Amino acid sequence: QVQLVESGGGLVQAGGSLRLSCAASGLTFSRYVMNWFRQAPGKEREFVAAISWSARTPGYADSVKGRFAISRDNAKNTVYLQMNSLKPEDTAVYYCNAVRDGNTYWGQGTQVTVSS
């Protein structure tokens, strides 16, 4: 059974940093594209960042480019999201997502709250 478990969320002041982690099990992690999405209250879930199996050329939403960094450790089956210079508008539940060959899996999410 595939499991994606996010951690590292919390409450932080504007300008601060957080590092999210997503530990994967039950899948061949190194073969999956890994993504982070987020969903703010009353809004649709939106893409944040993506990283391929080889970790080359990660992709970011314009809203987080230059502030967030996605990385992965295939030996630990874990993907990370380093979030710097956080803004109140970054407040959301952050979800880890794994995709390969039409199969997609989601974690349960971790709450990030940025106070002004």
As a percent range, the share of strand residues is over 45%
Percent helix, as a range, is: under 10%
Structural class: mainly beta
Largest sheet: 7 strands, mixed
Mean pLDDT: 96
Q: Please provide the count of β strands.
A: 11
Secondary structure tally, helices: 0
Q: Can you tell me the overall shape?
A: globular
Q: What is the radius of gyration? A: 13 Å
Give the SSE string.
EEEEEEEEEEE
The unreliable regions are none
Distance between the termini: 40 Å
Task: Please give a structural write-up.
- The structure is a single chain.
- With 116 residues, the chain is mainly β.
- β7 (68-73) and β8 (78-83) form a beta hairpin.
- Strands 2, 4, 5, 6, 9, 10 and 11 form a seven-stranded mixed β-sheet that branches. A four-stranded antiparallel β-sheet has the order 1-3-8-7, with no helix packed on it.
- The chain is 0% helix and 54% strand.
Features:
116 residues; 7-stranded mixed sheet; single chain; 4-stranded antiparallel sheet; mainly beta
Fold blueprint:
Elements: E1 3-7, E2 10-13, E3 18-25, E4 33-39, E5 46-51, E6 59-60, E7 68-73, E8 78-83, E9 92-100, E10 103-106, E11 110-115
Parallel strand pairs: 2-11
Antiparallel strand pairs: 1-3, 3-8, 4-5, 4-9, 5-6, 7-8, 9-10, 9-11
Short description:
The chain is mainly β and 116 residues long. 0% of the residues lie in helices and 54% in strands.
